[in-house]
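Bumping my old thread because nobody answered last time. Still need a sequence for this structure:
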């Protein structure tokens, strides 16, 4: 309320008591608005309304699992079926242990839902490994094309034609958006959540928006991707030794029994009988 409007209201009241009452009312309204800021109240109301959603968001994300996880209904049905099968198998056990198995059925079902939701499928694991192996060469090829003066779209198309697999599929989605008329910046920003190409795509979007060169940035991302690939290869090399323990034990224990234990037992038996 402006000063002109206030003065107009005050002049409308001829008597002094009426002016005094109106002035006191306006002063009280101003103090109320000062203490109870509407913007602050709106922010607090919005926070209060969104607080349950924020509290339940981690639980919902935990239950939903990975983005490529099986549907929640399928996981629930499969986990309940396995838990009931476990309960029926243990129903024949007498005593308190048989009753304890039925108490463990809900726990087994919940663990099954969460485990199936966060377990990485074999196809996703194979795709992730192939991306780790191919992303360094793809970024280096794109950097080489841009350094030679090739436009960004042509460089991306060259990478898509060169590779066959998840790299070509993901970059092919960007090319499809560009062919549909989507802006280059928007098309590249669709890969901002990509685990291997996300940072390079973000730098490409910023470079096309500002008009700067991105060759050195792509080479830096290629070097980082090579370090990631080296670490993945080292992990896989170490895992070979761990995975080979069980086959070696399966082959070693029977031969040890036949060559070491059985002759000693047989000779001891013959000596005792002779």
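Sorry it took so long. Here it is:
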């Amino acid at each position: 309320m402006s000063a002109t409007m206030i003065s107009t209201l005050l002049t409308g009241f001829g008597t002094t008591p009426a002016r005094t009452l109106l002035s006191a009312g306006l002063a009280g309204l101003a103090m109320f608005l000062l203490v109870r800021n509407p913007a602050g109240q709106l922010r607090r109301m919005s926070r209060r309304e969104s607080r349950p959603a924020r509290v339940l968001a981690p639980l919902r994300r935990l239950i939903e699992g990975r983005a490529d996880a099986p549907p929640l209904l399928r996981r629930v049905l499969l986990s309940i079926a396995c838990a009931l099968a476990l309960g029926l198998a243990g129903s024949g056990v007498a005593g308190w242990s048989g009753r304890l198995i039925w108490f463990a059925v809900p726990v087994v079902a919940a663990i099954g839902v969460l485990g199936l939701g966060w377990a990485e499928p074999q196809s996703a694991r194979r795709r992730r490994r192939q991306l780790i192996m191919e992303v360094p060469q793809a970024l280096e090829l794109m950097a080489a094309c841009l350094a030679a003066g090739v436009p960004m779209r042509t460089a991306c198309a060259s990478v898509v034609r060169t590779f066959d697999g998840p790299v070509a599929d993901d970059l092919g989605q960007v090319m499809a958006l560009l062919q549909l008329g989507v802006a280059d910046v928007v098309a590249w920003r669709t890969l901002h959540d990509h685990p291997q190409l996300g940072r390079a795509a973000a730098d490409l979007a910023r470079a096309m928006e500002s008009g700067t060169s991105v060759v050195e940035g792509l080479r830096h991302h290629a070097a980082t991707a090579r370090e990631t690939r080296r670490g993945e290869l080292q992990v896989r090399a170490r895992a070979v030794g761990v995975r080979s323990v069980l086959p070696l034990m399966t082959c070693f224990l029977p031969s040890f029994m036949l060559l070491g234990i059985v002759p000693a037992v047989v000779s001891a038996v013959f000596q005792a009988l002779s």
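The longest helix spans residues 215-243. Let me know if any region looks off to you.
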